[in-house]
Amino acid sequence: MSILLSSESRVVVQGITGRSGLFHTQQCRDYGTNIVAGVTPGKGGIHIEGIPVFNTVEEAVRYTKADVSMIFVPPPGAADAILEACDAGLELAVCITEGIPVRDMVLARQVQEKSKTLLVGPNCPGVITPGQCKVGIMPGYIHKPGRIGVVSRSGTLTYEAVKQLSDVGLGQSTCVGIGGDPIIGMNFIDVLKRFNEDPNTDGVFMIGEIGGGAEEEAAYWIKKHMKKPVAAFIAGVTAPPGKRMGHAGAIITGGKGKAEDKIRTLTECGVAVSPSPTKMGTTMQELLKGGAPA
Amino acid sequence: MNIHEYQAKEILQSYSIPVPRGRVALTSDQVERAAKELGGHCVVKAQIYAGGRGKAGGVKVVHHPEQAQELGKELFGKRLVTPQTGPEGLKVRRILVEEAVDIAREFYLSITLDRATSRYCLIASAEGGVEIEEVARRSPEKINMFNIDPATGLRPYQARKLALKLGLTGSICEDCVQLMLNLYRLCLEKDCFLVEINPLVVTRAGWLLAMDAKISFDDNAIFRHHEYPDMMDYSQLDTLEINAGKYDLSYIKLQGSIGCMVNGAGLAMATLDVLKEFGGEPANFLDVGGGATREKVAEAFKIILEDNDAKGVFVNIFGGIMRCDVIAQGIIEAAAEMNCTLPIVVRMDGSQVEEGKRLLAESGLNVQTADNLGDGASKIVAMLGS
To answer: What pLDDT does B43 receive?
Structure first.
C-alpha cells in the first residue's frame, strides 16, 4: 500500500445523509472505496444507498469495523465529529467541512493530537490512493496509479497539479490535501515523512500558497531529511498586498508569507520550484530525469 | 471580520478592561462637541479598518475644540493610506475623540492564533507602540509569547510571569494579570481571531489603560454571534466586495481588464499568476468556493460583469466538490440576465464536465471553451487583444 489509505481501508461517512455527504459517498463508492457505514445522529437504523446508518461512530465501528472516517458534518457540529472519530479509535479522520470556527478547532486539535487518530483537514479535498481508495471530493478520473506523492494546502489547485502529472505520464502513489485552514491536522512535514519512508513513492510534488510559514518549515525539513526528489509550486506570486489588521500575525510569522520568500527558501533547500502553474507536471518530469529544474 | 477601534474598546470595557473616556463622531461638529465635553485637550483618531494610522496623519493631539473641528473637516472623507490598507487606502467616515492621557510607560499586548501550535498565543512586550513589528524583527527576545493550553485556559500564574517580564510590580502587576485573564475570556467568548491592545499604558496616575485596540472576529463563528453583521462598517469595503460577501464569495477588486471566476483560492491565485504570465491583467480575484449553488455562481458572474473595468471574462473551474454542469447553468443564467456580450473563455475540468460544455455550446453566448489553464489564459488574452 501507499500512505494513509489502501484498498483495505473501511470507511465510515459522518454526515452521510446531507446533500454533499451523500453525493460524495456515491462518488467515492463508484471509485472503488469500501464505504461500510454512515453516521447521522437521529437517523440510526436506516439504510441509505444500501449503506447502514448509525447514530454514533462508536456503533458504526463496532458493527462494521470501520477504520477511516470521512467527515461532511456542517460547521457547527464538525469539531464534535472530529472528536467523536478520535474517541472511537479510528486510524484516520478526513474532514472535508469548510468553515469550522477556530475556537472549536483549537479544542478538537488539542484532543486529536494526543489520540491515535490522524487528522487530515479540515477544509480540504481529502486523500486518494489512485486505483485503490478515494476519501474526499476530488474528481477521481484525473488520477493515475503511480509513484509520485502529492501534498497540498490548496484544493482545486491540487487537481490542476495532479492532472498535469497524469498528462505527462506520472501517476501518483497517494495525494493528500492537508487543507487551507489556520488549524489543520497533518501538515506538510507529517505527510513528507510518510512519503520519505514509503517504498511505493519515488518523488513528491508539493503545492503551497502565500501566507503563513508552513512551506518554509517544510523546506528546511526536506533539506535535512528528504531522500527523494521534491518539486513544488507556490501560488500567489502576483497577489496584491492584502489589507490586514494589527501586528500580531506579522510578529508570529516573523514577516514570512510572501510567495517570493517561500520560493527562495524552497529553492535553497534543493526543491525544484515550478515557475508557472502551467508547468507543474513538466517540472516534476524534468527533476526525475535528473535535468536542471525548469 | 474587522471592527473599528471604538467598537473594540466598547467590548474591552464590557470585560472590565479600562479604556480612555471617548466619544464617536460622524461630523466635524460632533468632533468639536466631543472635544469640548472631554475638556479640549484630546486625541482625534480616524476610524478605519487598519493600523498604522498615526504616521498617515489619522491620529493627532489637539488642544482646543475648534482645532478638533478643523481636523475633523480635514479627515472626514479622506482616504488614509497606511502599510496595512493597500495602496488605495481606506475612507474615514467615523472619528473617535478621546481624552488625552499622561503616559508613563507603553506596552504591547495581544492574543491571536498561532498556526504552528494550533493554540491561542498571548503576546506581550515592554516595547509597545507603532514600531512593534520592527522590534519583533530586530530583537525577538524582547517579545514574550505564551501559547495557551486550551484544556486549562490561561492561568493567573502564567499571566503573572508575563506581567513580571514586562517589568510590572505590585498592584499594577496584579491589575495586568486580571486584564490578561479578561482578554483571554473575551477572545474565546467573542470568537476573536485577534485582540490587540497597542499600546497598553501605565498612566502617570498609575492606572492601566488600553490606548488603542483592534479586534478581528472569526468569520466562521458568525453563526453564533448574530449581532456581528450589524457592527460592520460597510463604508470600509468595496461595493462589489460587499455584494460578494452577501453570497459568501471571496472577491477582491484589482486593476486590470480580465474578470476572473475561479473555484478555490489557490487555483484563483494561480490563475492570476498565469494571466500575467500571458500578458493579461486580471480585473479581480473571485473565489466561488466549494459547494456553490447555481444561484451563487450566477451572482458571482453578475458581480464580475458589474465591474466596468472587466472587458472579458475568464472562468477557470476545476470541479470536485463543484459540478461543471451547475457552473455552466449559473453562467448562462447570469449572462442572459445581464445581456452580456463580452467575450468569455471557460476552462472547465472535473465532474460532469461534458454536460457543462454541452450546455455552454448550446447557449448562444460569445463563449470559447479551453482545454487547459495555459490554453484558456492565452485565448482570453488574444480575444481582448484583437
So the answer is: 96
Say if residue A252's pLDDT is above 70.
no
Decide if B133 is catalytic. no
Give a three-class secondary structure readout of A94-159.
Answer: EECCCCCCHHHHHHHHHHHHCCCCEEECCCCCEEEECCCEEEECCCHHHCCEEEEEEEECCCHHHH
A245 within 8 A of A219, measured Cβ to Cβ: no
What distance in Å separates the CA atoms of residue A132 and residue A150, rounded to the nearest whole number? 16
The reply to whether B266 and B279 lie within a common domain is: yes
Tell me which of B351 and A226 has the higher pLDDT. A226
Residue ranges of domains in chain A, CATH in brackets: 11-120 (3.40.50.720), 138-289 (3.40.50.261)
| Portion 54-113 of B in contact with A at CB < 8 A | 84-87, 90, 108, 110-113
* A163/B123 Cβ within 8 A: no
CB contact under 8 A, A20 and B274: no
Average of per-residue pLDDT across A92-107: 96
B269 and B376 belong to one structural domain: yes
In contact, A111 and A122? CB cutoff 8 Å: no
Does residue B226 sit at the A interface (CB-CB below 8 Å)?
no
Q: Are residues B229 and B135 in the same domain?
A: yes
Res B241 pLDDT > 80: no
- Whether B31 and B86 have beta carbons less than 8 Å apart is answered as no
Q: How far is B121 from chain A (nearest CA, A)?
A: 9
In which domain, by residue range, is B170 found?
1-20+102-236
Based on the residue annotation, tell me whether B196 is a catalytic residue of this protein.
Answer: yes
Which of A104, A110, A115, A156 best tests the B interface by mutation, with the highest count of B CBs <10 A?
A156
Least-confidence region, from A80-94, B134-148, B193-207 = B134-148
* A232 within 8 A of A279, measured Cβ to Cβ: no
8 Å CB contact of B150 and A277: no
User: Would you call A250 and B50 a contact, using CB atoms and an 8 Å cutoff?
Assistant: no
Average pLDDT over residues A152-174: 94
B364 half-sphere exposure, CB direction, 13 A CA radius:
3
Q: What pLDDT is attached to residue B365?
A: 87
Q: How much is the pTM?
A: 0.90
The shortest CB-CB distance from A235 to any of B132, B194, B270 is to B270
pLDDT confidence tier of residue A293, bands split at 50, 70 and 90 = very low
CATH code: domain of residue B140 = 3.30.470.20
The count of structural domains within chain B is 3
Amino acid of residue B287? D
Q: Is B271 on the interface with A (CB under 8 A)?
A: yes
Task: Kindly indicate whether the ipTM for this predicted assembly is greater than 0.95, answering yes or no.
Answer: no
In A, which residues are within 8 Å of B145 by CB distance? 251-252
Q: Last residue of a domain, which of B203, B236, B269? A: B236
